[in-house]
Amino acid sequence: MKNILLMSCGKSNYFVKSFNNYIERNSLNYNLIGMDNNKKSKFFKYLNNSIKSPQIKSKSFNFFFFNSIKRFKVDFIIPFNDPDLKYLKDNFIKVSKYSKILTPNKRLIDYGLDKVKTKKLLKKLSLKYPQSFIFDEIREDNFPIIHKGRGKNIVSTKGFTVIKNQNDFLKVKYDKNFILEKQIKGQEYTVDIISNYKKNFNLILPRQRIKTRNFVSVKAKFENNNRIIKQAKKILSFFKVVGFVNFQCFIDDKNKKIYWTDLNLRISGGIDFAIQSNPYFFETLINCLENKRIKKFPKLVFNKKILNSKNFT
After folding, report:
1. Residue 189's beta-bridge partner residues?
2. DSSP 19-65
3. What are the start-end ranges of the E strands in the chain?
4. Which domains does the chain have, with CATH numbers?
5. How many CB atoms lie within 10 A of CB 66?
6. How many helices (H) and strands (E) does the chain have?
7. What are the angstrom distances between the C-alpha of 231 and each of 164, 206, 235, 237, 260?
8. pLDDT of the chain along its 313 residues, tens only?
9. Gap between the Cα atoms of 49 and 44, Å rounded
10. Is the whole-model pTM more than 0.70?
């Protein structure tokens, strides 16, 4: 029996329920263990093994976490947010003695968490990203501007502020833990990915973010966008992933160019859309975990229907 720890999975109810159903329906030798600090999370009712954890910043978390992965003999760990990703990075060597962390290696994780390093990587790969601004050099023609966490020292999974004009900007205090960048006006995409670089396999699913709630998609539409897929593969070649990642980008309304904004080295909050769109989703994931080569992947048909998130039902 192989045990998979779903770390902070409380808001991904549909993923947990669907994955568990897939394992049971196919009599697979896997067991899901859910962990979250919110005891009211709906996923608890779906799994036989669920753990109510302390807050990740609490003094008791470290002892609790290592005790849990040893007690449950955890084989794989899937992080669901950036604070967990940073914790795993900071404890990578110690955790790796007990479990396989489904992220890139420790050295590479900062290129997703730290937005300054993200931009340096995109520049190295000759890919576009929003222009950055220095706090004391903002001009009127720079607006609207995005103000968001850098992610180097203080890590948050989501959130940003749009600064529309100079009056709004005067209310913002300089903070080295935040960055300023140009707002790209256009269609936003999340690219959900299951990857196994060892087998040279990638499942890449670009989706339009039609409507969001608290920065998570609640309505989306998949699009077989070859330009996005080609550039996503280029980014993947750097990270050497076994497991989940998701990348975010915009296609500019005016020049139609792709601008990459976030490289999230973890599963996405809107992963339920990928499950809805692809009947081979969990089969792909299991093959990825077991390092099995998928000889012939069925061609996906992207329908134009707008999908609603199932995490809120």
Report:
1. 208, 249
2. HHHHHHHTT-SEEEEEEES-TT-GGGGT-SEEEEPPPTTSTTHHHHH
3. 2-7, 30-36, 49-52, 74-79, 100-101, 132-133, 145-149, 160-163, 178-182, 186-196, 201-213, 216-222, 242-252, 258-264, 307-308
4. 2-101 (3.40.50.20), 110-126+184-308 (3.30.470.20), 132-182 (no CATH)
5. 15
6. 10, 15
7. 30, 11, 7, 10, 10
8. 999 999 999 889 999 999 999 999 999 999 999 999 988 888 888 898 989 999 999 999 999 999 999 999 999 999 999 999 999 999 999 999 999 999 999 999 999 999 999 999 999 999 999 999 999 999 999 999 999 999 887 787 567 899 999 999 989 888 999 999 999 999 999 999 999 988 888 899 999 999 988 878 899 999 989 999 999 999 999 999 999 999 999 999 999 999 999 999 999 999 999 999 888 899 999 999 998 876 565 566 555 688 899 886 5
9. 8
10. yes
**Residue in the structure block whose two tokens are 């990642």:** 245
Residue type, 271: I
